Amino acid sequence: MSPSTQLYDQLLTFLRQHSCYKDFRHLKTLAWMVSALICSGQLNPAAWEPYVPSRTTQAQSFERRWSRFFMNRVIDIKGLYLPLVLLALTHWQSH
Prior knowledge:
Layout: H1 3-18, H2 24-40, H3 59-71, H4 77-94
Helix pairs in contact: 1-2
């Protein structure tokens, strides 16, 4: 199992506990994005490709995937991110 897959599994478990989501697929995509961001160390979605297992062979497919996620109006941003931000701020304040 690659390091990005192990990180993905841990992130998905954490996100499931602390996020309100309507569609589990959105949460999975978010977990892949965050794990790829951490592993690549770059904000560029094109750099995330090696860290996300997929059947696609073209970089444009990866970029379209992230673009669809960012532009999806169905995703409840407050429901996904607000609990995580509040949790992070709580732990940050204690340090």
